Amino acid sequence: MKTTDFSKKIKRKVFNTCILPCLTYGCETWALSSQHRDMLAHCQRAMERSILSIRKLDKQINADIRSRTGVTDILIKIDQMKWRWTGHMLRSSHEKWSKIVTEWYPRDGKRRRGRPRKRWEDELKLTAGYNWRRVAKDREQWKGLEEAFAKRHTELRDILE
Question: Source organism's superkingdom (predicted)?
Answer without folding.
Answer: Eukaryota
